[in-house]
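Re: folding output
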Amino acid sequence: MKNYFKTFAFLLLVVPMFLFADEPAKAPDPAAETANAIATLTVGLDTLWVLVAGMLVFFMNAGFALVESGFAQSKNTVNILAKNFVVFAAATFSYWAIGWGLMFGDGSTPYMATEGLFFLGGADNSPALGDAYKGVYSSMNWTGVPLLAKFFFQLVFAATAATIVSGAVAERVKFHSFLIFSFILVAFFYPFTGHWVWGGGWLAELGFHDFAGSTVVHSVGGWAALAGAIVLGARKGKYLPDGRIKPILGHNMTSAALGTLILWLGWFGFNPGSTMGVGDGSTMSHVIVTTNISAALGALASTVTAWVILKKPDLGMILNGTLAGLVGITAPCAIVSPSSAAIIGAVSGVLVVLSVLFFDKIKIDDPVGATSVHLVCGIWGTLAVAIFGYADSPAGVDVPSITTQLIGILAIGGFTFVISFVLWYILKLAGGIRVSEEEELSGLDLGEHGAEAYPDFSIRARG
């Protein structure tokens, strides 16, 4: 009997060990492990590049602040620096909460997104929720970087559009009015037209091409800036009763030159970063070279043009010519050759000088030339896509017709200008958008902020 009990106990202990024992470990598959490691490394490198490029674009805020404050009078320096700081903060909140979803959400009509709105907290929780949010932004699924990397890169673009406006309305706009306009621009106007092109909307379906934003970013900012400059009116003393133009000189061209160099550097994130990945490096390299060549030729062409027309190689024109070349190449940078980029930059450099003089002649006061740089050269760059684009380019897209590009320019420009003009006018009626004459003459630094950029110097207010 004892033997039976021993046998039974043995079976109770040993048999379950066989029944529930783990299956023998499978031998690792070297090919699968290598493929997974390569895929992980690829995503990691792509993500790193997108984030670094986004940081370069973010640093362009420093460039804009230095250029704008340098081109303006010293008595308005604090106001300009404050605008350039706070506008990025306002843009971050408005794009995070509203703009991103309107621009890239699914369930869309050809004109606006209807899903994925109000991106509040969705990317800060569990990976599962993050994946769920990724699912409603299919227009961005062409790049494999994480959702938040895509969002950050697009955010700095949206903020750039708002920053452009600051320069054109400088030295007379109320601080709070500018912030309200910037918030609404980034939350609604910019993503609405951006969806048409980059969110899979009707212009994308039409074949409209804008690689990094000559129209989507720069012309949108330029149209909004033009509307603001018109509604605000010119600075006091800019245009004399007899029709003569009185130059209001910038107070620090060192600042303006340094800011332009920072912007030039930032554009090496702006344009190449729009690849949203490293790939084999060929597209990035192509875009960096075309971007740099266009900027260089813009600087040279504006130097010569200013020398011929103004009889002097005006530094302000040289700086704006550089920026003009950068804006002009932003749309076609991945679809044109380096030699074509040289032509695009040269034309941009000539255009910006003529445009600055034209806007002055029709008495639209733009202290930094933002409308000439970003609007006029943004239009030119978008047309250059059709003029100089070639098949089998790194962009990997069909070259659109000039008619298609014109439709996009007119549609986005018409919408942005009209809606911006209306908003500026509503703000004007609601509480005013322009500081008092006394405040404008004494400087916005003291009137709006109660501070001075150069308190150790006695600065005479100029009318």
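--- second protein (sequence, then structure) ---
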Amino acid sequence: MAFVPRVFSGIKPSGDLHLGNYLGAIKRFVPLQDTHQTIYCVVDMHAITVWQEPEDLRRWTYEIAAGYIAAGLDPTRSIIFNQSQVMEHAELSWIFNCVARMGWMERMTQFKDKAGENAEAVSLGLFAYPSLMAADILLYKSTGVPVGDDQKQHLELTRDIAKKFNHDFRRQTKALGYEADYFPITETLATGPAMRVKSLKDGARKMSKSDASDLSTIYMMDDADAIAKKIKRATTDPEPLPSEAAGLEGRAEAENLVGIYAALAGTSVVDVLTEFGGAGWGRFKPALSDLAVSVLAPIAGEMRRLVGDFTEMDRILRDGADRARAIAQPHMDEIRKIVGFVR
């Protein structure tokens, strides 16, 4: 039985949507509508692995869904919903908790980074959330996931869980009429510049909504003045831009800004340096500001309109959840039979 070419991905509603979310994820989601069945989730269950104010969680859920649509996702072509409306995610996550091994989870570097030195005080959910991520993907038998560099380890875990489930339950799966594996071995779909957008103030750090300096992050609903101000004050070095990509080595801030320009323009780093090689920051930064405003302003305007229309956003999310559930429920019915649950 061949697997349907299907993509799943999601963004966690734990802060305002920013440029890193757009360039590293959402912008890459849109063209996949033409080649795959696409399912894009607001992963609100992942968000509560750390404390969230409920009012903020609701606001950010609407904002991310609005960002999806404003950036070009069509809710009639893609399935757009928030995770907590389809509880099969949680059910499959528990089964995967019993498939995954403790050693696999303990190797997850993101948990170590987020927990820091106080690992015993964080939630169990934060430790186990890669299992929920695997459930998100495999619940729909997704064949591909557009992930950034920081999530590749979690996708490897998803693949390990799928392989172990397929191996452990091969006899039961065949009894249901499957000649091959039950779950696909999901592939990563990750290419292009600015896959991991860095802070505008520190090229060694990822752009983040939790950064102490507001100047480090461009938010998707920033106005033109705010975007221009943040780019103007972005950290650089005294050297002009090189003419070749090799000249960016060891220049993290320069590499970040050039990558942002390339991703916004839909071109390559090589082409950007062909145009701006030898130029100083006094020429490049205004050009980057103009480009960022031209790309982001229409998205911001549409996001503001959508987040102001709660009735429409609720309708879109409910419709998406119904369509997601129509795929998830038959899969869960089979998985319950495979693992031996009586219903």
